[in-house]
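Preliminary data (for renewal application), pyridoxal-5'-phosphate complex.
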Amino acid sequence: MTPSRLIRPLVRELHAYVPGEQPKIKGLVKLNTNENPYPPSPKVLAAVKGACDQRLRLYPNPTADALRAKLARLHGCAVENLIVGNGSDELLALATRAFVEPAEARCAQCGPPRAGQPCVWDAKTTARFVEQGLSARTVQYFNPSYSLYPVLADITGAVRNAVPLAAGFTLPGLADLRRGGQWDFRAALSFITTPNAPSGRGYCTAELEALCRAQKGVVVLDEAYVDFARENALALALSHPHVLVARTFSKAYSLCFQRVGYFIGHPALIGALHKIRDSYNVNGLGQVAAVATLDDLPYYRRNFRKVIATRERLGGELTALGFEVFPSQTNFVMAKPPRFPAQAWLEKWRARKILVRWWPHPEVKDFVRISIGTDAEIDALVRAAKRILAGR
Ligand SMILES: Cc1ncc(COP(=O)(O)O)c(C=O)c1O
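Predicted structure:
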């Protein structure tokens, strides 16, 4: 027997998401995965340590109730507007499963659809498609943006619609999107990374609102980096029933390790996601850590300010060295390096134990993305850049 033949053809053909490297090299300056350079607050560490007791034998709260109650107070919404996930990645995946029809859905009972005799499930799908005028099988996103979206579309067997951003990775205006003809205003699901990754560009809420108003399907505004930005679009999730905002504790709140993210939106959409998540999708220590985080927000707000100050300083220093630096509203900067191709910079920095991120895709291959580290880490990166340029 060939075991691979037991795997669904769609899964056999899939290319898995490629996360940034996590090498264990001593003394490495790791600026490749947008982790926060500052530790969680001492109160969070104490809360997690304090929870390492006999509780570990019990299942955690299935709906992260304490955390949702605190988030509801913070954001001025109801707990029904919130779902917590095993990182926001889990929720992005659930959204794809909940709102998008697989491209080749076949009912196991009825077999392949026959002309004039759609099976009951296909009939329901078609009804949704026709009644709402949706491109029910389309997952749509801008290019470049978070490279997980196409992977999620492929896992679902959906149709991907990757639409180029405008010059300088800015958000195309509605008129341009209409004129361009590629953006699908009927897409079942549209992901918008705001501020954008990997460019770092911030988008203004008024522009996002205009786009959301024009969409018929679900729009997920992925605000993974929003705490480092000037504006956020949370209000859109509470005023438009088809808009969800995604947030995470990974970046601004130094909790990647614990995997906690959440969505805010209309109870009908949030309720659909609750139906299809794992029963205990958020681990207990993660819930404890996230609750303690919300009890110590001033600590994190000080860190946001430090990260932003370091980001602005890095931008200035790289510009002075001849890099073309995009304005950033995140905890990373994207820059086009001088003299050598971006991939060569990746290797040259790596040889000096400094890790940044580079992708081979045509629209971003000329750039490196540098996560904001501590001031000392950024000093090391800039010093190394000066040596590289001096040929040392
Ligand atoms: C744009 C964007 N969204 C979501 C995530 C996932 O975050 P989480 O750690 O909450 O799964 C990332 C992580 O890199 C990201 O860059």
